[in-house]
Write a structure and sequence with these properties.
With 210 residues, the chain is mostly helical. It is built from 12 helices and no strands. The chain folds into 2 domains: 66 residues, Homeodomain-like (Arc Repressor Mutant, subunit A), CATH 1.10.10.60; 118 residues, Tetracycline Repressor, domain 2.
Length: 210
């Protein structure tokens, strides 16, 4: 028998500025509040997906963890399938990661990853490192990561071996992300972001513009 994941007492994290039941029928929240609430819902869904099968996760469990109501999730995302399609997509995250001219892209990518960890507490691209990669979910995540991150970066590059260089650049970046955000290396965490960018970005840029 499958176990359906339902919320547990205390397993919630209310987003700053988020509203609850009143969001569904009351005055629309300011855009900042709406975006913060959507982000909290996505974080909650990612947290649960990293620990449970997609079919075992209920909207109620996601809502409780995010500190919102299930109807609010439906308002923002439409249905459960649409929510988890967004969770397993890297599209908008890759757009932000790659949003710089090619000569400056290495520095931008490193800074974006580090600021994601320090300012937002996570970098969504890093979820490929610790997400469950078995079964259909894993196939979708891997395919999305390849097409939306690695292949998209390769399309920006000129010269030979663009695909290989793109994957090496992404691998270099993810290595930093693991040490900074997951292993939480003490020396890295104590360093200034710009110092890390100065030291590390050339390794990424060398693959982008050899």
């Amino acid at each position: 028998m499958r176990t359906v994941i339902t919320p547990h007492p205390g397993d919630t994290a209310s987003p700053a500025g988020a509203r609850h039941e009143d969001d569904v029928t009351g005055t629309p929240a300011p855009r900042r509040d709406a975006e913060a609430t959507k982000a909290a819902i996505l974080r909650a869904a990612r947290h649960l997906l990293a620990r449970h099968a997609h079919g075992d996760i209920t909207l109620k469990a996601v809502a409780e963890r995010a500190g919102v109501s299930a109807p609010l999730i439906l308002k923002y995302f439409g249905n459960k399938d649409a929510l988890f399609a967004r969770v397993m997509s890297f599209g908008s995250d890759a757009e932000a990661l790659l949003d710089a001219p090619l000569p400056d892209l290495g520095r931008h990518m490193v800074r974006h990853l580090l600021e994601g960890q320090t300012l937002r507490g996570a970098d969504p691209v890093l979820r490929i490192v610790f997400a469950p990669l078995h079964g259909e979910q894993g196939d979708i995540l891997r395919a999305n990561f390849r097409t939306q991150v690695s292949d998209r970066l390769a399309d920006r590059l000129t010269g030979p071996d663009a695909g290989l260089r793109a994957e090496l650049a992404v691998a270099t970046l993810l290595g930093l992300g693991v040490m900074y955000g997951i292993a939480r290396g003490a020396h890295l965490r104590a360093a200034e972001i710009e110092d890390i960018v100065d030291r590390y970005a050339p390794a990424v840029q060398n693959q982008l513009t050899p």
